[in-house]
């Protein structure tokens, strides 16, 4: 409590010495608070990120190092200055007004979705080319201003330097074997049996956000590659196409693997783990689903159409799709396979969107997952960047 109370005092001291005033608090979290600031002379707006004293300083030092040379380029937020007051680190950045994805998701058309993903890949390609992984890609960290069609990748607290070398294979101890049973609770969602709950499970640590973590993160391999960012971008992509935000919210690392199995199939997950020297024990065996039909059906469900009795009778889930439907929407309606009725209702865009690209981004095996460089190599050139003429601001460093 005292750590957060002192934030305002330190921010006010920074404002007085640099002719800034606090407009409002934009957000807060375990790291500290973010304020909207305005320069008294130029009237220019800024965002000030003030760390909490409870936050490890290494997180902010890491973010500063990553942004020092890369900020302001290729859809990456620009870091303007860094200051220190007592034991608190303050980061002054460009203020980027943005639209909340949850508010505009249903109105985003196919072209807008493609431009959103394309600009995200532009940022990731630039990071990866400079040997950096973001490791926390998600809609909340990729801001989008719909009016001016501009984008900004933020929050580099988890960013890390990466190596181009392949991830080494290693064996998983038998006591940490993954196990998913066919036991179900009353609502029909799969749960882990008591025998498995007694085992020590692998934890992904504090890196990334649950729901956007790839398989190699979930099983806690010692080395990561830029492929973890591509997987997270793929989850963002399928979120936009399915109009479902968030796409899935696993309770823990093991349930996240279970969700992957229900969508991508048991065989694909087994093979990816086997390539890393891991063994997965899971029942029953699930087939892989068609991502295009999954996006089409979930988009239809997200718009509230599951209450239509006529459609329910036409699209009751088959045995192949029922487990996934219970996982995602807690309903038995709308089959991911027999959705011919929905095919006629949807525009041609769902048949022309790059679902092949989505499948390559969500490749369970990181070794065959597509790269940002390859995805943007043959894409149309990005729009002419909007240049903002900077206003000189006098900042005092401590």
From TrEMBL:
User: What's a single GO CC term here?
Assistant: nucleus
Q: Where does ATP bind?
A: 49
Its GO biological process terms?
cell division; mitotic DNA damage checkpoint signaling
InterPro entries per UniProt: Kinase-like_dom_sf, Prot_kinase_dom, Protein_kinase_ATP_BS, Ser/Thr_kinase_AS
- EC id: 2.7.11.1
In alphabetical order, the GO MF annotations are:
ATP binding; protein serine/threonine kinase activity
Alphabetized UniProt keyword annotations? ATP-binding, Cell cycle, Cell division, Kinase, Nucleotide-binding, Serine/threonine-protein kinase, Transferase
Look up the coiled coil feature and give its residue ranges.
none
Do you know which Gene3D superfamilies this protein is assigned to? Phosphorylase Kinase, domain 1, Transferase(Phosphotransferase) domain 1
Q: Which residues form the Protein kinase domain?
A: 20-389
Report the family membership. Answer: Belongs to the protein kinase superfamily.
| Protein known as | non-specific serine/threonine protein kinase
